[in-house]
Design brief:
3 helices; 69% helix; 2 domains
């Protein structure tokens, strides 16, 4: 019999060069990935121990302890997966909306006032030009 570990998928390796300032969500994902990796390593070590004990026909207490460790590590892996999935599916915070400078009805009033002021300025300018002609 070979001493290969059971077929539990190993967690993906974390990126080697992590940026210096991680966002809180990214830090949580990194922590979940590290917990998952540690639990998977613990599971693999316990599985190797169980295989070694079962091949030699050794003590059943050691095999039971290894199985319990594997079960606990499996639960840790499941919890880490759940946390990582929840964080990955969490929507990114939306950028705050730029506050409006004016309300639409105010804009219409301001445009009307500006148009009226310009019309009056043109009239005054024409009157001044007419006065200068005389």
């Amino acid at each position: 019999m070979s001493t290969q570990t059971p077929t539990e998928p190993a967690p993906q390796a974390a990126p080697q060069a992590a940026p210096a300032a991680l966002t809180p969500a990214a830090a949580k994902v990194e922590a979940a990935a590290a917990a998952w990796k540690a639990a998977a390593e613990e599971w693999n070590a316990a599985a190797n121990e169980w295989l070694a004990v079962s091949e030699t026909g050794g003590a059943t207490e050691a095999a039971k302890a290894a199985i319990e460790t594997m079960e606990a590590a499996t639960k840790s892996i499941a919890a880490a997966r759940t946390a990582a999935t929840a964080l990955a599916n969490c929507p990114a915070p939306a950028a705050p909306a730029r506050p409006r400078r004016h309300r639409p009805h105010q804009v219409a009033k301001m445009r009307a006032r500006r148009a009226e002021r310009r019309r009056l300025e043109r009239e005054i300018k024409k009157e001044k030009e007419e006065e200068e002609e005389y």
